[in-house]
Specification:
single chain, alpha/beta, Nucleotidyltransferase, domain 5, 7 strands, elongated
């Protein structure tokens, strides 16, 4: 055996120096694994255990190495034959205690692999008799093997009901009436697994012995216990009627993907013509709920019925701009126009800029606009921050560069076109945002903003402004387990949520649509109103967090990596913090 793979080489050398007998033991060990002619199963198992115990590799690697070796040595003339040798090993293994289950799996899997390559073992009949007796002893409880090993013994030795009846008849000849009715005896054994909710073991045994007595109630019970793999295997074994029942149960429980896969795999399209379409609609709805409209449209793949369903979802979400876009692209008629309905829909369902007191949205993409925006923001005590970037749906690929950054004051929201400003005036952009983000006089509000900062730093790594910040208050950290994100928090605090249908839209397109601008502005402006409401109304905070008032000042954080600042920045740090009173609105 390749003991050096198991970490024995170094140990063998040490033992040889200390004691000569150790060297002999190593020679016996090597001989035992290369020629099983005169090696008893108990010796083989003992040496196997020693190799595992003293090997210095990780357990998984040791298991695989030994599995490979056992497969090879089964070809080395074990007596009276490889199948019988394995059967005796399985009989003996329980005396090895905690090693029994792992070694049983190891030997059975190695033997199963051996059977695939061997033309015949020459001792299959004798081995099967031993294996049947072993299985019956496991069932009776006189041999302690795991239930999964019992199933594997049946499979690897191809034990059928007739084989068990044959061995049982020999026992009856000796006045042993334990197995008077073998089938009833096995059914009672299997029923025990059903009672203990070991459904997969029960199904494996029922299938192996072709017992079809359990029916609909058994299937429903497995589904209720979420044992779906066992339920599907059982239904497949029972045939088309049970498979149809399984599909119906899945549809009733809205497990449409599972229902669709069963229908497809078992050619049940004629019996369930609508399942595929319902599954596709369910997938589109989940994508729409995540605002992944482009992915949803790609999944529809031009199917007119699915595209119309996607239009319906866009209408339901109030995304009538998307309704118009899809209707125009696929020449659909009979749907309302965005201009006629969207404003009314949004006004009744979600927060709007007028309710938040926002008077102006200002697009900033050139030098003069950036300067004016910076002056206005530096004169504010509290601002809301957010940013957006185009989603990337390619798995494993890097996120796209941050496209825009929103900075809201009480009355205005500035939307900075970071891509254009970075290309045109990177130094000025860096300087302006450094003044804003590091100013100790401006309280910056964000929601999960550390993720935005990380993305900003990755997108514009050579800018210094995103590496440090001062006086940042992450609204998310003020509440325990906020549900529904920023929209859910706005609904709890302000009475209405945010329309998130444009969250995953294309933020790199220019110009942005008016609805995109409004969406972006709302995400920044709502932070200010949530902050003011929490500070001003203690009962709101009490309802949300179980405290009389949230001490928001304790949640302010700063991240100033570079201790060597310019004199100007040092003076800024010494300026007093902004005086934002708890009742300021």
């Amino acid at each position: 055996m390749r003991l050096f793979e198991m970490g024995f080489e170094e140990k063998a050398i040490k033992l040889q120096v200390k004691e000569e007998k150790a060297c002999e033991t190593k020679q016996i060990c090597l001989h035992a694994f290369t020629d099983l002619t005169y090696v008893a199963p108990i010796v083989f198992l003992y040496l196997l255990k020693e190799c595992y115990v003293h090997g210095n590799l990780k357990p998984t690697k040791k298991f695989r190495a030994l599995q490979q070796e056992v497969h090879q040595v089964l070809c080395n003339s074990p007596q009276p034959g490889p199948a019988t040798f394995v059967a005796y090993c399985l009989y003996i293994l329980p005396i090895f205690g905690s090693y029994c289950e792992g070694f049983s799996h190891l030997i059975v899997s190695a033997f199963h692999r051996f059977l695939k390559t061997a033309a015949t073992t020459g001792d299959s009949l004798e081995a099967k008799i031993i294996a049947v007796r072993l299985f019956l002893d496991i069932v009776e409880g006189s041999i302690d093997h795991d239930e999964r090993i019992a199933v594997k013994i049946l499979e690897v030795f191809d034990i059928k009901l007739t084989d068990i009846e044959k061995v049982a008849s020999q026992s009856k000849a000796k006045n042993d009436r334990r197995f008077h009715n073998v089938k009833a005896f096995l059914e009672q054994y299997i029923f025990g697994f059903i009672e203990s909710e070991s459904y997969m073991t029960a199904v494996n045994l029922l299938e192996h012995f072709s017992i079809r007595q359990s029916g609909e109630s058994f299937l429903v019970k497995m589904i209720e216990k979420k044992q779906f793999r066992a339920a599907e295997k059982w239904a497949t074994f029972m045939g088309k009627p049970m498979l149809s029942m399984l599909v119906e149960e899945y549809v009733d429980r809205n497990k449409l993907k599972s229902a669709y896969l069963i229908v497809k795999k078992n050619n049940l399209q004629q019996e369930f013509p609508d399942v595929h379409h319902k599954y596709k609609e369910s997938a589109l709805k989940k994508l729409a709920e995540k605002a992944c409209w482009d992915v949803a449209e790609a999944k529809a793949n031009g199917d007119r019925q699915l595209v119309e369903y996607l239009v319906y979802l866009a209408m339901e979400a109030g995304y009538l701009e998307k309704v118009d876009e899809l209707c125009n692209r696929y020449s659909l008629e009979g749907f309302p126009k965005a201009q006629e309905h969207e404003a009314i829909f949004l006004q009744h369902c979600f927060l709007n800029l007028n309710e938040l007191g926002v008077e102006d949205i200002i697009w900033v993409d050139e030098l003069n606009g950036l300067g004016k925006a910076t002056c206005h923001i530096e004169g504010s005590k509290v601002v809301g921050l957010d940013c957006e970037w185009k989603p990337n749906y390619v798995k494993g690929s890097k996120p796209n560069k941050v496209s825009i950054m929103q900075i809201a004051s009480d009355k205005k929201v500035f939307i900075l076109d970071l891509i254009k400003l970075y290309n045109d005036v990177p130094d000025v952009l860096d300087n302006c945002l450094t003044h804003i983000l590091r100013s100790p006089r401006i309280l910056k509000l964000g929601y999960n903003f550390h993720c935005d900062v990380k993305q900003l730093a990755q997108s514009y790594g050579d800018l210094e402004c995103f590496k440090c910040y001062n006086m940042l208050l992450d609204i998310q950290n003020m509440f325990k387990d906020p549900r529904g994100g920023l929209s859910g928090l706005a609904e709890k605090i302000l009475g209405a949520g945010l329309n998130k249908t444009r969250r995953n839209s294309n933020w790199e397109q220019r110009p942005l649509s008016q609805t995109q601008l409004e969406y972006a502005a709302l995400d920044a402006a709502v932070l200010i109103q949530i902050f003011y409401r929490v500070c001003d109304h203690s009962h709101t905070a009490d309802a949300l967090d179980g405290r009389n008032k949230i001490e928001w000042k304790s949640y302010i954080v700063s991240h100033m990596d570079n201790p060597r600042k310019s004199r100007k920045e040092s003076r800024l740090r010494k300026e007093p913090e902004p005086e934002v009173k708890d009742n300021e609105a």
